[in-house]
Amino acid sequence: MDLTAGEIRVAWQVQRVEGKLLRRRTKTESSDAPLLLPEICLAALNECKARQDGWRALAGGAWQGSGLVVSTRYGMAMEPRNFHRDFKRRCAKAGVRPISVHSTRRTCASLLVALDVHPRVAMQILRHSQIAVTMNVYSEVSSAETREALRRLGARLGKQEP
Q1: For the chain, what are the domain ranges?
Q2: 2 phi and psi, to 5 degrees?
Q3: Which residues on adjacent β-strands are paired with residue 69?
Q4: What is the pTM of this model?
Q5: Can you tell me the distance from the alpha carbon of 47 to that of 149, in angstroms, rounded to the nearest whole number?
Q6: In the predicted model, what is the mean pLDDT of the chain?
Q7: Is the predicted pLDDT of residue 51 greater than 90, yes or no?
Q8: Of 92, 129, 111, 137, nearest in space to 40 by CA
């Protein structure tokens, strides 16, 4: 994660498999490519990092240092059910209808379509390995278009209704 550059690389995921909490590589190489982040995401990740820094200082030698962006107070992988509960709590606090964490990808895709973002850009943002998963459209997309799409998405998400 490079918050100064405004990007993140997602190479690992945490999953519960046969009762065990495992760190696994992401599905495809394209999943590991840098993803430019809108300002609203950068702000949230900076808050998360500051919280982790505080926990690290309090935990001292008990800190596990997993390198995960989201962790427990001791730096260990967060139980997916706890993450989901926390997500639902934050939805309620924000006054939005709770959805599953996985459904946020569909929500992102819907917002990108509503913003008339090119399908190839949406494919990059959503990290689909084939365009057919996103839409049946093929074309080249520049990083500048990706950055602009994410800036517009961040601006739209950052607006609050009176």
Answers
A1: 1-97, 102-162
A2: -125, 90
A3: none
A4: 0.67
A5: 23
A6: 82
A7: yes
A8: 111
